[in-house]
Amino acid sequence: MADHSISEENKIFLKEFYSLVNELDDKKELEKTAQIKLNHLIKVAEFLVIAKPQSHTKNHKENLLKYLELLLLYFNSNEYAKTDYVILKTSLLYSIKQWMWKYGYRSTYELINFRIYSGLFVDFVIWLILYKEHFYFVPIITLIYISYGIKDFWRVKKENKLLNLI
């Protein structure tokens, strides 16, 4: 990232962000416990710095920093539960995920899992309708949905816009 195009406010944000990430990086078991990948958070922070308009990113930057601070606090207190991490993640990162969705960022769930479930539902309805005529039924709609999901997954991954925050 070119330093000359970054505002002073964004430099301060990145400095604070990377100091928190470095603290978290020392605690390898935290990534597994909190079920979060630091490289996805880094991708979010770098996008927040370059996204336009910057007035829309201020709240998201604050939420991201608050999330990292609370994550460290929870982990260092040794009185944490898995539900604490889930609540923390959904309350602070969900709005960021929704905002980044406008810019083409997608999660694996959106690309593949949702299509599997919707394809199975459509195939089940078709099977119920055709049950009297054909007992044997191939879930062709599910296979089509999965193939589109995999195609989109590779496209998003190629564009480096795969983001699994929640």
Give the SSE map:
Layout: H1 8-25, H2 28-34, H3 38-50, H4 58-77, H5 82-101, H6 108-130, H7 140-158
Architecture overview:
- The protein has 166 residues and is mainly alpha-helical.
- The protein folds into two domains: 3-101, no CATH class; 108-158, no CATH class.
- The protein is built from seven helices and no strands.
- The chain has helices at residues 8-25, 28-34, 38-50, 58-77, 82-101, 108-130, 140-158.
- The two termini are 26 Å apart.
Main sheet overview: none
Distance between the termini: 26 Å
Proportion in β-strands: under 5%
Number of domains: 2
Give the mean pLDDT.
84
Instruction: Kindly state the percentage of residues in helix.
Output: over 70%
Round the Cα radius of gyration to an integer and report it.
20 Å
Tell me briefly what this model is.
The protein has 166 residues and is mainly α. The protein is 72% helix and 0% strand.
